Amino acid sequence: MLEAAAITRRFARTLALDRVDFCARPGEIHALIGENGAGKSTLINIFAGRLKADAGVVSLDGEPLAAGSAHLALKAGIVAVYQSPMLFERLSWEENLALGGFGAGVSRNDLAAAAQCAQPLAARLGFDLPPPGTPVERCSIGERVRLEILRALSFDPRVLILDEPTGVLAPAELGAFLELLRRLRGEGRIVILVTHKLAEAMAVADRVTVLRRGRVAAERLAANTDEAELARLMIGEITVPASTSAAPLAALGDRATPALTVEQVTLDCDGRRALDRLDFTLSMGEIVGLAGVDGNGQRELVELLAGRRAPTSGRVRVRAHGGAITVIPQDRDLDGLILDMPLWENLMLARPLRDRFTRRGWLQRSGAVAFCGELLERFRIRSAGAASTAASLSGGNRQRLAVARALAGAPQVLVAHDVCRGLDLRAMADVHRMLREFAAAGGAVLLISSDLDELLALSTRLLVICRGRVLALPADDCGSERIGLLAERIGLLMSGAAS
Amino acid sequence: MLEAFLASTIAMATPILLAALGELIVERSGVLNIGIEGAMLAGAFFGLTATWFSGSLALGLLASCAAAVAFNALLAVLVVNLAVNQVVAGTAIDILALGLTGVFYRRFFGLTGSAFTITPMRTIALGPLARIPLIGTALFDQSALVYLAFALVPSIAFVISHTRYGLELRAAGERPEAADALGLGVYRLRWQALMIAGVLSGLAGAFLTLTYTNTFIEGISAGRGYVALSVVIVGRWNAWGVAAASLLFGAAMALQFGLQAVGTAVPYQFFLALPYVLTIVVLAFMGGQADAPSALGSPYLRS
Amino acid sequence: MNARIAAAARPLAALVLAAAIISLVLIALGASPVAVAADLWQGAFGNWLATTDTLVKATPLVFTGLAIAIAFQGSLWNIGADGQLIIGAMAAGALGTALGGWPHPLAIIAMLTAGAAGGASWGGLAGWLRARREVNEVISTIMLNFVAAQVLSWAVHGPLMEPSHALPQSVVIAPSAQLAFYFEPSRLNLGMTVALLFAVVCHLGLFHSAAGFELRALGRNRRASAFFGIPIRRLTVLAMALSGALAGLGGAVQVSAITHRLFETMSPGWGYEAIAVALVARLNPLAIVPAAIVFGALDNGSQAMQRADAVSPVLVNVIQGMVIMILIAFDAMATTGMRTALFGLAGDARPSADAVAGAGDA
Predict the structure, then answer these.
(1) Could you tell me which chains touch chain A, where touching means 3 or more CB pairs under 8 A?
(2) Mind giving me the DSSP string for B7-75?
(3) Which residues in chain A are closer than 8 Å to B27, comparing Cβ atoms?
(4) Is A73 in Cβ contact with B171 (below 8 Å)?
(5) CA–CA separation, A162 vs C78, rounded Å?
(6) What is the rounded distance in angstroms from the CA atom of residue A325 to the CA atom of residue A322?
(7) Are strands A215-221 and A362-363 parallel, antiparallel or unpaired?
(8) Which residues pair with A359 in a beta bridge?
């Protein structure tokens, strides 16, 4: 039995966890849910020994765990599989597994033996192991997820923690994955599933703990609750403006002036075909959703549209002056912002804004600072002023800034890649509103995401990208009455099943 | 003539090889140690000093290693525990070592230091092998440090690619967060790598003052530490490549004496500059960082 | 605001701590720290002549310090300011002999231009190697230092050698190319003014120009800079060339004002000392000037220290190395909390600029 009592943890000024109690029993699948920023990741990092709690004790079967040591947590039998992949990409998959439980205690690095130990486990997972010696960087995303779970299982863990594992799985693979969890439960292990997807949680969990703003909002038996109640507990009394109403999926009809045309674009890079004869058009006023599981060519497409890559064949045409496509990158902290620089200088990163405030090579500082102030106010970005650093902003506000910056450049086309990943509901609603307003004013948006809810809520038209190919949906599936079936169809396309 | 050149090549290659092997291990663990030059210099000076005061070469070797390890420990605190910029920290070590050795040298031995010489290590001839014509003396009649250096090449190659320890080391250099999450202990691994490299750099320095010459001049390392850095890159981060590259640069340095003796119209400065120019040229053609450990040079703070 | 004051105070604290540690070293050497400190001060500021000489010694440090600051702001680790200074000095020293009939202002401008051009080519070469061939600039600039030293040696023993062939030195430059001393017998000359001028220019360029912004962005976050279309390769070459040019200028000023000819050694390690100067100045061009004066004072005072206390002037290297290490250690501790940093415990580490700057391809 894994027990946590009064866990508290601070990060600088934010109280991430506030006297959290938690309890999970053997032979149980326990879902830990909450919206982004509620503290779920912090809590499991403490369980797995990656972080130290400021106060409180975690104990396994009555034995208190040594804090702050992943090594000791592993020894005690607690293993975590994290949201961002923790495999060593340059090393082969056997080497990765050998670093798990298969190779422990053996000083000679015997990879063949490690691979042999992995076989039976993989078979139970229904997973074919890659050819011997393949480096992980050449494995697909799905294979990597399975390898990570395999490695986690190699430790024969008493507690298996999974942090948002289904984000990279195609909807069709979800079923098999949930089956695996049930099997693990049957073996008497404790499975902690961290997720913000209520449907999945309800499908498989026995108990549910809801975190809200660092506190335990509730603990329930899954049988005694439903998605609606959980959603209410997750969000609390704060009313979020209804931005999730189903969007009209009807075509725009006569306002179809093309803003962006992608003509038979193929992109080869790193020895493989990343994009295969892409052909689609964005019209002014449209929000075109591009649904797809991460790693199917979205990144390459975004780099292409941002001008960082040239297509191997085909071309991209943009209507109107300057051909301005503005991209909001997926990884805002690494690609989108310079955390150590003040906000107004972060705004200057965008070419159009930089040009606007540069005269003969000299920056018009006062003008730029004033403009930044205006922008912060117009988009209600909470900050300590234009001169404060980007690092001082919360995740949600950073993304608001990134979107505001993109819009301030008055682009023709906006490409938003995973624009709401990791945002709390209020920030998400704000960003959605900004995008809608932009489209309503005549802009064109390409919304690239793996979040079907978001795509269905915002898009006027849907495309699916899978293995570098873009597939459109047959016209008759676009009627709003059949959204449920539509989601299933999209899910199948995303996973590469026959279209 | 050829024999002398060959012998010289191997002798000149040895300190570079020793230092580069140490740096190979360190870089595989993810740390870029610019301070090799400083550690080597410290090893050279303090080894000679210890020998001079005690009369024992063994003690001198020990002192060399200890001095270099001390400098590497200082670097380790900075780049591992404090996660500072590795280039700046390494450069500071070099400057510090230059200063410390200079100050101590002049304090104890005055400006000329003429009396600061010792009886150098003798070479050890490996029996009948040393009598092979042409290559015998070059390959088999060298100092013990030379044999050690070349013997280390296959050993280190094996450890890095075929042992669990090597695997853990490589993991730390690829993705330290993941390695820590698996409980491998990135700080521990990097510290150990730097300590091992300290011993090797110390031996490299000792070679300079206890074998190759028998005295100390300020700045005796003359950039060999930086050449060692290039050797790791050119050797594509594996021990055999490092050995080959060390021999290449050793040959370039040996060329100085060979061609000077021949007496050409080419000014001697050309030969002195040759190893450094060669380093740049070789790096220009083979300097790609594609094979570098993924986390090389990135400060990593456990959180 | 608090954080800013603390950040500005750290260099001072670093100097104090370095002084404390150096005292221990001195005691180990059998010298008296108090006596050494007194002699250092005396040598640096004891009288008018000493003070002016401190300024003279600080001048090349301003130039090389600026060179380092510009490069480091772009995360370009230019350890080759020495070599760039030497090549600049050579260019100026060679040209200077031919400027006989020129009017003084033009001759000086020609000297400075030659110095800047020489340094720019040396620095630009390293920049090109980094941009086009992925050659680690730390290694290439250090290698180029050694090469520059040999080129200088060859020049003063060969083509540029003075006709009598008595000593390895070049012909004296024409009088019109020499910067005069203002208040003889002090050696104060226009060089410091030129240095100040460039400090201001660098500051303006770095913080008020679009190019300076791009350079600072590159230095802090390489990925984001690439994403927003900042021309990284071009910027690398230009920044390294500019850095080299500043160092080369320092060389030209040295030749023009102080040495009037070329010798086998033109730099006692200013290029390395400049790293300490630049870090103490927190890479801010205006702050380089006072920082250079501090280190110039140490250099100047160390001569007196050698005579009086028999401690080698190389002690200043120890000071430099220590100051750098203490300063970067303080900065690290400030970001992560001292206890955390020293013992590697769980902490609030924010991604440092280096971490996101892709320093992995250093």
Answers:
(1) B, C
(2) HHHHHHHHHHHHHHHHHHHHHHTT---TTHHHHHHHHHHHHHHHHHHH--HHHHHHHHHHHHHHHHHHH
(3) none
(4) no
(5) 45
(6) 9
(7) unpaired
(8) A362
Helix (H) or strand (E) holding A56: strand A55-60
Distance CA C298, CA C322 (A): 14
Smallest CA-to-CA distance from B300 within B194, B193, B197, B185 is with B185
Domains of chain A: 2-235 (3.40.50.300), 243-324+411-499 (3.40.50.300), 336-409 (no CATH)
Contact criterion met (CB < 8 Å) for A86 and B178: yes
For residue A345, CA distances in Å to A349, A451, C209, C358 come to 7, 31, 12, 20
- Tens of pLDDT, residues C256-269: 999 999 999 999 99
Which of A99, A148, A270 would best serve as a mutation to test chain B binding (most B beta carbons within 10 A)?
Answer: A99
In chain A, DSSP finds a helix count (H) and a strand count (E) of 16, 21
Please state which CATH number belongs to domain B2-115+152-286: 1.10.3470.10
Whether A341 and C220 lie within 8 Å, measured CB to CB: yes
Structure tokens at B20: 């580069």
Residue A459 to residues A399, A432, A472, Cα–Cα distance (Å):
20, 11, 13
| Averaged pLDDT for residues A37-41 | 80
Which residues from chain A sit within 8 angstroms of residue B185, using beta carbons?
Answer: 71
Predicted-complex ipTM score: 0.88
Q: Which residue in chain C has the smallest CA separation from B303?
A: C346
Q: Any idea which of A162-171, A286-295, C123-132 has the lowest mean pLDDT?
A: A162-171
Tokens (6 digits) for B270: 């050309």
Contacts of residue A90 in chain B, CB cutoff 8 Å? Answer: 174, 293-294
Q: Which residues of C touch A305 (CB under 8 A)?
A: none
Residues 6+ apart with CB under 8 A from A484: none
Q: Out of B161, B166, B178, whose CB is closest to A88?
A: B178
Of C143, C275, C321, the CB nearest to B226: C143
Q: How many CB atoms sit inside 10 A of residue A311's CB?
A: 18
| Strand order across the A190-195 sheet | A78-81, A159-163, A190-195, A28-33, A207-212, A215-221
Which fold is adopted by the domain C2-357? Answer: ABC transporter involved in vitamin B12 uptake, BtuC (1.10.3470)
Region C331-343: what's the mean pLDDT?
Answer: 62
Q: Judge residue A244's burial from the number of C-beta atoms within 10 Å of its C-beta, 0-12 exposed, 13-18 middle, 19 or more buried.
A: middle
Unique residue bearing structure tokens 């200063």? B99
Judge residue A488's burial from the number of C-beta atoms within 10 Å of its C-beta, 0-12 exposed, 13-18 middle, 19 or more buried. Answer: middle
C9 pLDDT band (50/70/90 cuts)? confident
Please indicate whether residue A175 or residue A210 has the higher confidence score (pLDDT): A210
Query: Do residues B296 and B190 lie in contact, with contact meaning Cβ atoms separated by under 8 Å?
Result: no
- CB pairs A-C closer than 8 Å: 70
> Residue A478 pLDDT more than 70?
no
Contact status, residue C270 vs residue C82, Cβ threshold 8 Å:
yes
Q: What is the Cα–Cα distance from C124 to C27, expressed in whole angstroms?
A: 45
Q: Is A70 on the interface with C (CB under 8 A)?
A: no
Q: What is the pLDDT of residues C166-220, one digit of tens each?
A: 888 988 888 888 888 888 788 888 999 999 999 999 999 999 999 999 999 999 9
Query: At how many degrees (to 10) do helices B2-28 and B36-54 cross?
Result: 120
* Count of all residues that appear for chain C in the document: 362
The answer to whether A337 contacts C209, with C-beta atoms less than 8 Å apart, is: no
Chains that touch C (3 or more CB pairs under 8 A): A, B
CA distance A167 to chain B (A): 19
Domain ranges within chain B, ordered by starting residue: 2-115+152-286
pTM over 0.90: no
CA distance B28 to chain A (A): 12
Polymer length in residues for chain A: 499
